[in-house]
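Pilot study result, target chain (620 residues):
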Amino acid sequence: MSQQFQLLRERRFLPYFITQALGAFNDNVYKNVLVIMVAFASAEQLPMDATLFINAAAGLFILPFFLFSAFAGELADKYDKALIMRRVKWLEVVIMSSAAIALYYESWTVLLGLLFMMGTQSAFFGPVKYALLPQTLSDKELVSGNALVETGTFLSILLGTLLAGFIAHHPHANVVAGAAVLAFALLGVLSAHAIPPAPAGNPTLNLRYKPIALMKQTLRFARQDKVTLQAILGISWFWFLGASYLTQFPKYTALLGGNETGVSFLLTLFSIGIAVGALLCDKLSGHRIEPGIVPLGSLGLTGFGLHLFFATPASPTVHSDLIAFVTDPALTWVFIDLLMIGVFGGIFIVPLYSLMQQRADKAARARVIAANNIFNALFMVASAILGITLLVVIKISIAEFFLLLTVLNLLVAIYVSQLVPIFALRFFTWMITHTLYRVKHRDLHHIPEQGGALLICNHVSYMDALLLAGACHRPIRFVMFEDLYKLPVLHWFFRTSKVIPISHRGRTIRAAMNEIQRALDNGEVVLIFPEGHLTFDGEIDQFRRGMDMILQRSPVPVVPMALQGLWGSYFSRHGGKAMLKLPKRFWSKVTVVAGPAVEPEKATSAYMRDEVIRLRADRP
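Predicted structure:
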């Protein structure tokens, strides 16, 4: 949490955070005031049926994301992002000034057109909003930054929606609403002007506005990296779920026996849950980009979504006021489920945003994010079509609709885990290392950010590889004895993790050495345990000559690492054979520590053994 609060004290983040939060807040004040006023307006005042007007409003707001997102991505890659944010916020002032006049005269057609302009402004703001984060924050801060952005966004949506309700019931709602949206737009301009410069990622880019061609090209950028594409699809699936739940809250509240204030209460639970989940995700991941958190979020969404179906009462009591609604014991689990769906939604979404931003090419990052916005819009439209089809045409109940969303979410989670094994692998690693041990990391910044590197470490237990894989921010290629590699059940995990098997047989040794050389030459990280076996007495044995052979073929930096606190665990040889004795402790403290990289010319077996011994003994 301290890292998050530190970001909120720094100019490189705070003005940006305030700007994006004010934008989300103002959008929702305007949209919801307009929808509520239309709902209570007489038929003679409106240019069309109220239901048609409300649906047209939703469509007009989302249409610009299809028309302009790709072009907005090009703009954000070509020009300074802070400059674009300021220009977009000035556009918001122009739109809200027009809205204030239209609200005063109750010109509904103009207000509808301005909603399209607001969608356009949001479409241009979106790529800059998320492309600026990885440019101003380090990888270690990116998850914290995204957690704060998602927290600020959903709390702003909540507060904007609640304020819209108060304004809409004011005797002079049109005047108050116009003044409010203009005032908040001006505040957004002030905060945007405090954002430090964010230089262009690709200043030589040639701009052109060809919607269809640009959209196709932008979507191609997203497809260049499979993991990035799956992160985008995961984000879009979150918005599909979120839109599906939020759209049905009014009718679901009525089903529970509540009134209009009950709708606001459900929205509050859901939004606060997402905010808490986003911050919790940052804490659980240790402020790092951790794809293993994503399946945890998905499982939580599935579990509490399923429980929501069974918790929904068949014959609820009709409640006269909000207090009676909130304190009804029959609805306690419904409220808990909705809160926890929000919490696990926040846990689900933050790593995906961070992963997308980190993996996207710097010169095309904003266009990748623009592709994400297009996919988001498509999935939200699909959620509306599904809702209309199932609830209006087929006429299933809202509780059954929520159950179907839960089943779909489970299927999506399974599909993504199979398609992109990194999510499943990191989840498995994260669960093991965070339930059996209390793991701390020290000085892992010594592991190079890019390029080939050889990691060496003492070998204490059968959990060493999982602990090291969970600690390192880069994927690790482990070298493992072939007999272990071929173990039933675990073989799939090792093969998917790209473990390099080795044995004492000459042919296998040559094949392993060739694969290690290819991995290092391709810029990958390889880790070996130079002792060649688990320690028998807790001490570090002599290093074998395999490390020297590797460095002769591929002279790369060598990073010494050490595991502290594992000797004596159930998976070590302390007190007998590993895993064939009664466990004596649980959730023990383990530290993974790294030392400065050593040049290959200096990295002899004897020297590196001394470095690992020093690291293991060096306890703060």
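One observation from the pilot: DSSP finds 23 helices and seven strands in the chain. A full batch analysis is planned for the follow-on phase.
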